[in-house]
Write a structure and sequence with these properties.
The structure holds two protein chains of two kinds. By secondary structure, chain A is an alpha+beta fold. In chain A, about 25% of the residues lie in helices and about 35% in strands. Classes of the chains: A alpha+beta, B alpha+beta.
Chain lengths: ~160, ~170
Amino acid sequence: MPEDIVIDIAAMSAAFRDLVPFNSALGLSLEDASVSPAVAVLRLPWAGRLIGNPETGVIHGGALTALLDAAGGLSVFLKLRQPTPIATLDLRIDHLKPATPRRDVLGRAECFKTTRNVGFVRAIAYHDDPNDPIATSAATFTISTKGKAVTGHEIFGRKETP
Amino acid sequence: MISTVEAIAEAKRTGDWNRLIETLPFMRFLGVRLEERGGQLLGRMGFAEHLVGNPSLPALHGGTLGTLLEASAQIELLYRAETVVLPKTITITVDFLRSARPVETFVRACIKKQGRRVTTVQSVAWQEEESKPVATATVHMLIIGPEQDAVLPENTTGDASKRDPR
């Protein structure tokens, strides 16, 4: 398929955040996105409210779950290149090392395969080196054939070039 | 404010697990509350606008459910084990079974296997009916105390020389 979609990162980031209250509450922003490969990179900014263990200052594993789930869903949108309602079916996260306190975390997800009904995603969370991950994950998303996508139109609506 | 370790020790003594929640910022952010009922811990997360992940349905964000399930597993282990240190998650697998509606969500966890270091816990989250879970999780956790001796009651007689060096 030709590379026929120009992605406006800032517009996509704003839509993604403004339309999804929990993404907004976490302060998630889009760092990078492409459709081939279907990759989304999100930034989770450091905040004290993310702390899961006050003794160490390390953020809660659930904050990484939220980051990787959000990045994963976005990568499926990118793979499909059209507004489609999706839902996370399962998500496994391996915690390789604790996140460093007071540092932002990036979540990079790639949707490497879709079928009619399912999107398959791999993702990692890291500070600045993807080769030194904090966590890795594998997830599947169900792809619906009806209903309305939450962010689809806003993400792709005006971004396609002739 | 008291430390988390103090709050865990106090919760074990008094049964007031919300004292622990008050020391945990991400739990406060999600509005998680705990209650002890008949020797079991029940977690609850009231609905709040900022928890929404899909406003067109609307449905709760998967990350809020994942967090609730992971936290429930962590706290269940604290509730059952003789440790006052928060366990570390090694892996978590979340199955999203139903769309979680904008209402209060409940959670309960059950220890499936207690090991010397690694414990496996399953958590279930539901809304109207416990028999219709919205999400479940299997969580493998590691307990490492500052003195490396935090163990569950059943495992207090192991040979220290055989301990996993992790």
